[in-house]
Amino acid sequence: MGETLFQKTWDLHAVRRLPTGQTQLFVGLHLVHEVTSPQAFAMIRRRGWTVPFPSRTVATVDHIVPTRDVARPFRDPQAEEMLTELEKNCRAFGIPLHGLGSDRQGIVHVIGPELGLTQPGMTIACGDSHTSTHGAFGALAFGVGTSQVRDVLASQCLALDPLRVRRIDVEGTLSPGVYAKDVILAIIRRLGVKGGVGYAYEYGGSAVDRMTMEERLTLCNMSIEGGARAGYVNPDATTVEYLRGRLYAPRAELFARAASWWLSRASDPDAPYHDRVRFEAAKIEPAVTWGINPGQAVGVTERIPKPSDVSDNAREAVSEALAYMGFGGGEPIRGTRIDVAFIGSCTNGRLSDLREASRVAKGRRVAPGVKALVVPGSQAVRAAAEREGLDVVFREAGFEWREPGCSMCLAMNPDRLEGRQVCASSSNRNFKGRQGSPTGRTLLMSPAMVAAAAVAGEVVDVRTMLR
Amino acid sequence: MTTAITRIEGTALPLRGDDVDTDRIIPARFLVSVTFEGLGEHAFEDDRKAARDRGVSHPFDDPRFSGARILLVNRNFGCGSSREHAPQALWRRGFGAIAGGSFSEIFFGNSVAIGMPCVTLSGEAIAELMDLVSNAPSTRLTVDIPSRTMAAGAKTFPLSLPENAREAFLTGRWDGTSMLLERFEEVEAVASRLPYLRDF
Ligand code: SF4
């Protein structure tokens, strides 16, 4: 009987069975950012521990950085303190930091892949729930809390329970205007926001096989929104080609050896899965969320559900979401007015996302009264986009072109919604208050759909603009 | 090594609703800090304000429940962002245990790591306990880890807690880091066999 990538990677990194019954798992790459690390470092100091594998740890700053005025010190003294603290900690423990001012800085889940740090067959941890993103390379990547950041810093290990593996096949061809974001929103809509609890999601099928690495990153990024602690795609030729020549990827003759090892990590054809789910790519249309969790999504041509449409145990949640969002239920999602458009985040802040959004923005204008911003996922994305002139396309269309960071994905920096504003957002969470205003409203969608909404001033079907 | 946690006793606070996410437990703007201190007072800040604006009292602002040690919740509590600030905020507010229908995995793990058990009870038991506590807020509840029970007045309910976590609380091993450092030579042995750390 063959094995899944999950099993191979788990077994290779297993140190021992702990007295608690959990497995002690070695972490091959630990990514660190400013928000979830300071308390962990403080605890390490207090206990007199060290960081035994500083070179398997890499830090950047993303969550709190302003995207307009990045001059130091920041205007927000607490943000400045967090950044100074990270700089101090990285210096003290010998951890490489791609900080502000470096052309490698960016959202942690964007720079890991683009620097070639993220590689197949690795275990990866980061104090951020969207660490599942790195699974796009066939790595086993876990989002962890601050105590576990401390565990990894001090021991390079995590105490974990194994996950079951669910195989998700997406078969066929996506229609034009339908993106990886729409695929993952369709998956979460069907399997539920809790459906993946206890599972790792393995994505495959012909549609996933054809996806670029950036599309696979989007797909894996939102695994956690479906409750799955990890999600991955098996490494293949696309993965290997993406890694070739990257800063931290092996070079010269080492690369060939690495590539054959990477490919050997993929799940075997006869690997056992706990269960399998299948999606038809051709049936997926551009998705828009109408509620307060990422599972509350519809296709752009559909209507928002009414409480009477759903089963008894879902009714309360639907009513709560409708009340918060100010929807009556039953109306088409198309035509929903927006106030803000946000293109960015670790879900959709990469070059291909900006390219697709710019195709919509090109030669059009942001609707009057709409505030639209584009926040590249990293300095490298920004530079590449500027080389192609995407910044000019966006600016000419009336979008603001900002410095990289998490920005309005979670609004820990000055970018935030005000009052009950409605935001068309390419990020990953539409929770109440997520974008900085306790009453603010978020509609998740693909970056091209966000650009289309920005131009129209309301939710529209991007397919009508791409023709 | 840290201390064992066997029972948590005190009054309770009922917080109704499924899928309470960590953004609600502690809004992101309170994460801009290098310590966890002071988080307790901001727990559910936005929900509490929204309740005040509607002219109702959020259970966290209800004086009948002040000083509660046990938080009663429904299903999928703590979903969303992995921020450990969420259990920290509740712990610093004085809660020693959370009893609910179910918990998000990351929230559960983060709570274990700070020594705050999240125990699971049946939906009916939770509903009964919430009603009991709402009607008689001074009722004392006891979460008893060794016997896996929750006592409320004269009644006892079975609770579940995964064996790993139970063991960790009872042996004082919930401070996971010390445990991971116990046999460090085995960690080094794994590192030395990983192809990607040895030039493939
Ligand atoms: S972009 Fe959003 S989801 Fe991604 S790491 Fe930043 S805050 Fe987290």
What does the model show?
The complex is a heterodimer of chains A (467) and B (200). By secondary structure, chain A is an alpha/beta fold. In chain A, 33% of the residues lie in helices and 17% in strands. In chain A, strand 3, helix 2 and strand 4 form a beta-alpha-beta unit. In chain A, helix 2 (38-47) crosses helix 5 (146-155) and helix 13 runs parallel beside helix 16 (447-456). Chain B is of the alpha/beta class and 200 residues long. Chain B has 8 helices and 8 strands, in the order E-E-H-H-E-H-E-H-E-H-E-E-E-H-H-H. In chain B, strand 6 (141-144) and strand 7 (149-152) form a beta hairpin. The radius of gyration of chain B is 19 Å and the shape is globular. The chains are: A alpha/beta (467), B alpha/beta (200). The complex binds iron/sulfur cluster.
Question: Which helices and strands occur, and which strands form pairs?
Answer:
The complex is a heterodimer of chains A (467) and B (200).
Chain A: H1 5-13, E1 14-17, E2 23-26, E3 29-32, H2 38-47, E4 57-60, H3 77-93, E5 97-98, H4 108-114, E6 123-126, E7 140-143, H5 146-155, E8 157-160, E9 164-171, H6 180-191, E10 199-204, H7 206-209, H8 213-221, E11 230-233, H9 237-243, H10 252-264, E12 275-280, E13 287-289, E14 297-299, H11 312-325, E15 340-343, H12 345-348, H13 351-361, E16 371-374, H14 379-387, H15 390-396, E17 400-401, E18 422-425, E19 441-444, H16 447-456
Parallel strand pairs in A: 3-4, 3-6, 4-5, 6-7, 9-10, 9-12, 10-11, 15-16, 15-18, 16-17, 18-19
Antiparallel strand pairs in A: 1-2, 2-8, 13-14
Helix pairs in contact in A: 2-5, 6-8, 13-16
Chain B: E1 7-10, E2 12-14, H1 22-25, H2 45-53, E3 70-72, H3 85-92, E4 97-100, H4 105-113, E5 118-120, H5 123-135, E6 141-144, E7 149-152, E8 155-158, H6 163-171, H7 176-181, H8 184-193
Parallel strand pairs in B: 2-3, 3-4, 4-5
Antiparallel strand pairs in B: 1-6, 6-7, 7-8
Bound molecules: iron/sulfur cluster.
